[in-house]
TrEMBL record:
Species this protein is from: Algoriphagus hitonicola
Record InterPro entries: Aldolase_TIM, TAL/FSA, Transaldolase_3B, Transaldolase_3B/F6P_aldolase, Transaldolase_AS, TSA/FSA_arc/bac
EC numbers, comma separated: 2.2.1.2
Protein name: Probable transaldolase
Gene that this polypeptide is encoded by: tal
Physiological role: Transaldolase is important for the balance of metabolites in the pentose-phosphate pathway.
Amino acid sequence: MKFFIDTANLDEIREAYDLGVLDGVTTNPSLMAKEGITGDENVRAHYKAICDIVDDKVSAEVISTDFEGMIREGKELAKIDDKIVVKIPMIKDGVKALKYFHGEGIRTNCTLVFSSGQALLAAKAGASYVSPFIGRLDDISFDGLELIEQIVHIYQTYGYATEVLAASVRHSMHLIKCAEIGADVVTCPLKVITGLLKHPLTDSGLAQFLADHAKAAGK
Ligand code: E4P
């Protein structure tokens, strides 16, 4: 399973990359705004800075909601760096844009997916990734993980090449469950990845090993 970090914060991206387990980055307009990145020039420069940190797969989202606008914007984003994956919302013109970019050999990530029907459309249109939002479904009493399971099942049944990118991941158990289900990718905040490290028996076991070693060495 691939790990993407879900942030536009350069320090967090560097920290996750330095850990040696990072496969990519996802951003969205809210995450860019959180970092105070505004204006076309600054946005492009920020995406380039992210691309310079990681090896590949940096999702950059279009703002346009009409076909022509998404194509124009997506092409501009793709020009920034070969690592860019153009992120397109799951709307009617978005489906057309996914199909267009597929034909152009430009990778896409279909975002704001909340049903298996939407995921089926994204796969048929040739999206490279589909992003079902787990946490936002859980927030309104729908089972986000159940949706991941349904999409994985449908894609496996028909052999779709689209990768299931579990998004809106809120905690480490979401990530572990996604791994059990067979999601191809999970995108999450840094704390969800570092949360995997934690176990009290690791901490107490290491403390004991070091204490025994010091005792035997007469320290
Ligand atoms: C990533 O591609 C999504 O935009 C992101 O995971 C949404 O997460 P949120 O629901 O925590 O905002």
